[in-house]
């Protein structure tokens, strides 16, 4: 299961994701802020559409993305594990997901190079599960 993400700095200070695939996708993202680890989802993003995942200047170098292809099946992820839920969620902490009633999901790492704004370009084909 691979993750195909391209990264491009933007002028406005936000974390955005542009869906450059032919599919409708659901996106979750994870990050570490002053309160610790958190994951949030689901952002529904149509083909060729961009959405803001996090508003304001970015304070971390690394962010984490997991996306599900609703049209063709499969997902984009990686080996950085965080908690997710089936419906809209904000979850604090990334350990003991199952014990807290959540799923343990592998996210792909995004290195922003410590930029204060970033746009992730979701490309390619989702890996099949």
Structure report:
The chain has 129 residues and is mostly beta strands. The protein is built from no helices and 11 strands. The chain has strands at residues 5-8, 14-19, 25-33, 36-45, 50-55, 62-69, 75-76, 80-84, 89-92, 103-111, 118-122. The strands form 2 sheets. Strands 3, 4, 6, 7, 8, 9 and 10 form a 7-stranded antiparallel sheet that branches. Strands 1-11-2-5 form a 4-stranded mixed sheet, with no helix packed on it. Strand 6 (62-69) and strand 7 form a beta hairpin. It is globular and about 35 Å long. The protein starts with a strand and ends in a 7-residue tail after the last strand.
Quick description:
The chain is an all-beta fold and 129 residues long. It is built from no helices and 11 strands. The strands form 2 sheets. Strands 3, 4, 6, 7, 8, 9 and 10 form a 7-stranded antiparallel beta sheet that branches. Strands 1-11-2-5 form a 4-stranded mixed beta sheet, with no helix packed on it.
Write the layout of secondary structure elements.
Blueprint (H helix, E strand, L loop, with lengths): L4 E4 L5 E6 L5 E9 L2 E10 L4 E6 L6 E8 L5 E2 L3 E5 L4 E4 L10 E9 L6 E5 L7
Parallel strand pairs: 2-11
Antiparallel strand pairs: 1-11, 2-5, 3-4, 3-6, 4-9, 6-7, 6-10, 8-10
């Amino acid at each position: 299961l691979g993750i195909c993400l391209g990264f491009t700095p933007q002028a406005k200070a936000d974390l955005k994701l542009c869906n450059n695939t032919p599919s409708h996708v659901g996106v979750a993202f994870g990050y570490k802020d002053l309160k610790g680890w958190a994951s949030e989802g689901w952002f529904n993003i149509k083909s060729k559409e961009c959405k803001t995942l996090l508003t304001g200047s970015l304070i971390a170098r690394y962010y984490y993305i997991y996306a599900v292809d609703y049209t063709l099946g499969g997902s984009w992820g990686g080996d950085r594990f965080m908690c997710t839920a089936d419906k809209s969620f904000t979850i604090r902490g990334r350990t003991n997901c199952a014990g807290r009633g959540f799923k343990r999901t592998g996210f792909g790492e995004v290195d922003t190079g410590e930029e204060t704004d970033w746009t992730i370009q979701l490309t390619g084909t989702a890996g099949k599960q």
